Amino acid sequence: MKVTGPAGAASTPASRPAARAAGGFALPSAGAASGAGHAGATSSASGVSSAAALMALQGVEDPTERRRRAIRRGSGLLDRLDELKLALLGGQDGAAALERLARNLREERPEDAEPGLKSVLDQIDLRAAVELAKAEAGRVRA
């Protein structure tokens, strides 16, 4: 089928089957079926490659997403430090809070953060590591 412009589409005589020209119904020939099958196989392969391309694009983070993730990680560590503080002030041993703090500290940290944010995150990580080291030293002494 060929598009000729605003008037619409026009068929080329070579692509028109003889039975259709006579107005009757005709099944496609064996050659046309194999061509259609080949085209179907090609489109399914391109569907897989386009899905893989979409998955690859989703894996690429933009700087704002990395910044958001870094901020979320830092505020999570601060929340765990607050939980530890409240547990210790409440007279508890804080083992559960320490475990959550250690787990959050082990999370992957985005390294491409801006310098100011990186500095703050370094300080938060250091404070969390100090609290974990103090707790470990207390366990060793006991």
TrEMBL record:
Keywords: Cell projection, Cilium, Flagellum. GO terms for biological process: bacterial-type flagellum organization. InterPro entries: Flagellar_assmbl_FliX_class2. Pfam families: FliX. Residues 1-20 are annotated as: Disordered. This is Flagellar assembly regulator FliX.
